[in-house]
Design brief:
Rossmann fold, alpha/beta, 8 helices, two-stranded antiparallel ribbon
């Protein structure tokens, strides 16, 4: 959260008492207005025109907060195979492909897997989100992750529970460091959120 004085942002109390396994988490915009509408159209209705603009916003956010030389891999947050079959695509993979092309950082969309088909997170309080996601990710091809500096990419975050669990899974698989880039932050009553806004 932004500090009251000059200098780097301060850590919130939750991060001080229960540090996440990722190093930095940054988001681009608030999940509201036209951004929210565009993400809904893309995610649920396959509007790939909206995907182009959203991907550009993600790339701009990366450029504000990170350098390509900091990472060996981009890893998009996966969805469960059952949901992938229903939807036909993972919106986060589509945006991560554009980010990979723009930065030259290799994309790894196969190593991190969603092994538990969890119910939607929307509307759940933070403790339920954490419980919902516990043990929901797994890693295959761990040799790709070992000693790698990884950037996790996701489309929307509220409490950061998804990227916390994904980062924990990648660190257990031997990643040297994990940072997170999220396009949009959803602010709900009582939520702390993640990282800092661009």
């Amino acid at each position: 959260m932004p500090g009251g004085t000059a200098g780097p942002p301060a850590l919130c109390g939750r991060c001080l008492t229960d540090p996440p396994r990722y190093g930095r988490a940054r988001y681009g915009v608030r999940y509201q207005g036209e951004v929210r509408n565009a993400l809904v159209r893309f995610k649920y209705y396959g509007d790939f025109h909206a995907a182009r603009a959203l991907s550009e916003m993600l790339i701009e956010t990366f450029d504000r907060h990170f350098e390509p030389r900091e990472f060996n891999l981009i890893v998009p947050v996966p969805i469960h195979p059952r949901r992938l079959l229903q939807r036909g695509f993972n919106q986060t993979v589509v945006m991560a492909e554009k980010l990979s092309a723009a930065t030259g950082i290799p994309l790894d969309r196969r190593s991190l897997r969603k092994i538990k088909d969890t119910p939607p997170q929307v509307g759940l309080p933070r403790p339920e989100r954490i419980k919902n996601l516990k043990g929901s990710f797994g890693v295959r091809h761990a040799s790709r992750i070992t000693d790698a500096k990884v950037l996790i990419v996701d489309d929307v975050a509220t409490t950061g529970s998804t990227i916390r669990e994904a980062a924990k899974t990648l660190m257990r698989a031997g990643a040297a460091r994990v940072d997170a880039l999220v396009l949009a932050l959803r602010i709900e009553p009582g939520s702390v959120g993640i990282g800092k806004e661009g």
